[in-house]
Write a structure and sequence with these properties.
This protein is α/β, with parallel strands linked by helices. It has a single domain, classed as Metal-dependent hydrolases (TIM Barrel). The chain is built from 9 helices and 8 strands. Helices cover 40% and strands 17% of the residues. Strands 1-2-3-4-5-6-7-8 form an 8-stranded parallel β-sheet. The structure holds zinc ion (2 copies). The site of one zinc ion has 5 residues, from loops.
Length: 257
Amino acid sequence: MLIDSHCHLDRLDLTPYDGNLDALLRAARDRGVSRMLCVSIDLPQFEQMYEAVSGYADVDLSVGVHPLHVEESPVTAEQLVELSKRQGIVALGETGLDYYYQTDSKAAQQQCFVEHLKASRSTGLPLIVHTRDARDDTIALIREHGDPQVAGVLHCFTESWQMAEQALELGYYVSFSGIITFRNAEALREVVRQMPMERLLIETDAPYLAPVPHRGKKNEPQYVYEVAQLVAELKGLTLQQVADQTADNYRTLFHRR
Ligand SMILES: [Zn+2]
Ligand SMILES: [Zn+2]
């Protein structure tokens, strides 16, 4: 059984499925995807997302504000704690720091990340962390404000092995997306080779970043299969072994209440 540990089910292109999310989810299940974590990017969209996907037994949800949405959707730890009490919420995020697309909101991003870290402390919910071109600040904020007993995941990882190692030391998991299948991603494939299997997760980040051979098309959860397949190849494991281990890891990190 495969688990897509990070996707945005409320933002998918449903055109090939005649606008029917049920049909898209069925296509994922038909390829062995047994669970999906639908990740929130800001509060106004959280409400719509919650309404659209919280009824599915095989869909978990998170609540949080993406670092590129902090300015239009500021949030406090108290708000996050309150929203996280809803049925089906298994994590906080995605939060974190993205200095690649946005450098002038650094301070606001950091503050928002700290609110998520505080909410994680008080709820015990793990964090889904988005980090891009912000290695030192991401690790430093987790160290300073994170709860050593409550881990999280660095999602859609594209950084160095050195950063991955620091995350592992903090008890974090590292999640890889279809980016590992891209032709120019050899350095990242090397990080996958080094990553201990018991800390590795897989995801699509759909609708973004479709893996090879679907690159250029809209991504969807069924393509987590291609991510798992490449991880298996890089690790010298079977697809089944990768599916089982990453599903175990998912269940260790995220508990449905
Ligand atoms: Zn992200
Ligand atoms: Zn995402």
